[in-house]
Write a structure and sequence with these properties.
transferase activity, transferring alkyl or aryl (other than methyl) groups; UbiA_prenyltransferase; 2 domains; mainly alpha; membrane; UbiA_sf; cell membrane; 6-stranded parallel β-sheet
Length: 478
C-alpha cells in the first residue's frame, strides 16, 4: 500500500459505529517504529559511553534511561504517520499501544507526534482489547496499525487492521482466513540497502595493501595472488567495522546533513539484521587470512582491535581519532608488505602516516565547516569545536607538506638508487603530490570537497590523472 492509498483510509463502514467514535490504536514497536527499541537504546548508550547502561539494556530490555535520548531521532514509519494524520483529520481518537517498560518512551513519542489521546498498556490490551478500551472510556470497536501475523496478536478483534512489514506469505494467509488485515508497508531491507550498509565503494581504500607490491618490485603471480587475498580480508573486515560503527553512531547520524541517509540512521535496514552480518564477515576474513603468512593475520587482528576501540571510544577523543585513522590506513600498507613477505620501508611508513593524518584532519575540517555553514552546534559525538577550524586546517596542511618532504628524502636515498634505473625521474613525484595535496586543502576551504577526501579522490578526474602520472613515472624510472 502506497502513501497515496492511505489518503483514502479511514472512511466508516455503513454498518459500523460513527467514524469519529472509532479509535485508531497504533502499536509502538512494529507500528510507529520498525526497529526494536532495545537496540536503539543500546546504540544510544554505547555512543554516550554508558557501558553500565548498555549492559542493563541488554539484560533487562526496554530503553533504560535512554528514552529522552532516542525519542527525538527514532525513524517513524511514514505510512503509519500518514494513517495517524488521516485519523486526526477525521476527528478520530488515536492511542499508542505501549509495553509497560516503554511507557516513558511512549510519552515522549506522543509529544513528538502532536495530539495523541493516550497510551494503552500492551499487556492488558493483548489480554482483553475490549476491557482495555473500556477502561480508557472507549467503545469496543477499534482499528489497529502495527505488526500482525496469522497466528494472532493485538490486531484480533479490530474492525480493520493495517499490518506493517507484511510478507507476501502472511498476506496470502490473511486472505485465505478472510481476516480484516491490509498490508500497510512491505518488509524493508532491500539488497541495495544492505549493500549500502556494507559500503563496498569504500573497498578502494584497501587497495593500499597493493602499494608494497609496487614499491618492492615483487610482481610475481604468487605475490599478486597474496596481495589480492589481503585485499579481500581487509574488505570483509572493513565492512564488519562499518556496520558496527554505523550502529553506534546511528542517532548522531540522524542529525547529520548527509549521514542521515545511512541505512541504520534512515531505518532502511533493521539493526538486528545488520549486526548479524558482523560475525559472518569476520569469519570470512579470518578464514581467508589463514592462507597468508601469520604476520599478516597479526596485523589484521590489530586492525580489528584498533577499529573496535575507535568505534567505542577513540573517535570521541580530540586528535587521537585522526591519529588512529592514519594508523589504520598505514596498517593496510604494512599488512600488504607482510602478505607478500617483504620488509616494510621506513620511508613508506613515514610518508603514509603523515599523508593519511593530513587527509583525516581534512575530513574533520569538512565536517566542522559543514556545521558552521548550517549554523549547527558543535558535534556531540566528536571532541571538536567549530572554533577549532583554523587550527585543524593548519595541522592538515603541515602534515601534508611534511609527507611530501619525506617523499623527497626518500627519492634522494640510496634505496631508490638501488631499486630504480633512472631514479632522477622520481623527483617529479614531489610536485605532483604537492599539487594534489594543495588542491584538496583549497577545495575543502571552498566547501567543494566530499566529507571523506579519499572517496573524493576516487571520484575526481584530476586525482586519477595525478595517480596515472605517478604510476607512469615509477614505470619509466624502473
Amino acid at each position: 500500500m502506497t502513501l497515496q492509498d492511505i489518503e483514502n483510509i479511514g472512511t466508516p463502514h455503513e454498518q459500523a459505529a460513527p467514524a469519529s467514535a472509532i479509535p485508531l490504536v497504533v502499536a509502538l514497536e512494529g507500528g510507529l517504529i520498525s526497529t526494536p527499541v532495545r537496540l536503539e537504546a543500546l546504540a544510544a548508550a554505547l555512543s554516550a559511553g554508558e557501558g553500565a547502561e548498555a549492559l542493563a539494556i541488554l539484560l533487562r530490555g526496554g530503553c533504560g534511561s535512554m528514552a529522552a535520548e532516542i525519542a527525538g531521532t527514532l525513524p517513524l514509519v511514514p505510512e503509519t504517520v500518514r494513517l495517524i494524520e488521516n485519523a486526526r483529520a477525521g476527528a478520530r481518537p488515536v492511542y499508542l499501544l505501549v509495553p509497560e517498560r516503554l511507557l516513558p518512551l511512549g510519552g515522549a513519542l506522543a509529544a513528538r507526534l502532536g495530539p495523541i489521546d493516550g497510551l494503552l498498556p500492551l499487556e492488558s490490551f493483548t489480554a482483553s482489547p475490549s476491557a482495555a478500551l473500556k477502561e480508557a472510556g472507549l467503545g469496543p470497536v477499534f482499528d489497529y496499525a502495527g505488526s500482525a501475523t496469522p497466528k494472532g496478536g493485538p490486531w484480533q478483534g479490530a474492525r480493520q487492521a493495517f499490518a506493517i512489514g507484511m510478507t507476501a506469505r502472511q498476506a496470502a494467509a490473511f486472505r485465505k482466513a478472510d481476516a480484516p488485515v491490509l498490508p500497510l508497508s512491505a518488509p524493508g531491507s532491500s539488497i541495495v540497502a544492505l549493500l549500502k550498509l556494507l559500503r563496498p565503494h569504500q573497498y578502494a581504500k584497501n587497495l593500499l595493501v597493493l602499494v608494497p607490491l609496487l614499491t618492492s618490485h615483487q610482481m610475481g603471480l604468487h605475490s599478486l595472488f597474496a596481495a589480492l587475498l589481503a585485499f579481500v580480508c581487509f574488505s570483509l573486515t572493513a565492512s564488519a567495522v562499518y556496520v558496527l560503527n554505523d550502529f553506534i553512531d546511528m542517532h548522531a547520524d540522524r542529525a547529520h546533513p548527509t549521514k542521515k541517509r545511512r541505512p541504520f540512521a534512515a531505518g532502511t535496514v533493521p539493526p538486528a539484521l545488520g549486526l548479524s552480518l558482523i560475525p559472518l564477515l569476520l569469519f570470512g576474513a579470518g578464514l581467508t587470512a589463514t592462507v597468508l603468512p601469520p604476520l599478516f593475520g597479526l596485523f589484521l587482528a590489530l586492525y580489528v582491535g584498533l577499529t573496535t576501540a575507535y568505534s567505542f571510544s577513540l573517535k570521541k577523543m580530540m586528535l587521537a581519532d585522526v591519529t588512529v585513522l592514519s594508523l589504520l590506513y598505514t596498517l593496510r600498507v604494512v599488512a600488504g608488505a607482510a602478505a607478500i613477505g617483504v620488509d616494510m620501508s621506513e620511508w613508506l611508513f613515514a610518508f603514509s602516516l603523515l599523508m593519511f593524518t593530513a587527509l583525516a584532519l581534512t575530513k574533520r575540517y569538512v565536517e566542522l565547516s559543514a556545521r558552521l555553514d548550517r549554523d549547527l552546534p558543535d558535534p556531540s559525538n566528536r571532541d571538536y569545536r567549530i572554533s577549532d577550524l583554523p587550527v585543524v586546517a593548519a595541522l592538515a596542511a603541515a602534515a601534508g607538506m611534511n609527507a611530501i618532504t619525506v617523499l623527497a628524502l626518500y627519492v634522494n636515498s640510496e634505496t631508490v638508487k638501488r631499486l630504480y634505473a633512472h631514479p632522477a625521474l622520481l623527483w617529479l613525484l614531489c610536485p605532483l603530490f604537492l599539487y594534489w595535496m594543495s588542491r584538496v586543502l583549497l577545495l575543502a576551504h571552498r566547501r567543494q570537497l566530499h566529507d571523506d577526501p579519499i572517496v573524493f579522490a576516487l571520484k575526481d578526474v584530476r586525482s586519477w590523472l595525478v595517480g596515472a602520472l605517478c604510476l607512469a613515472l615509477m614505470a619509466l624510472a624502473a
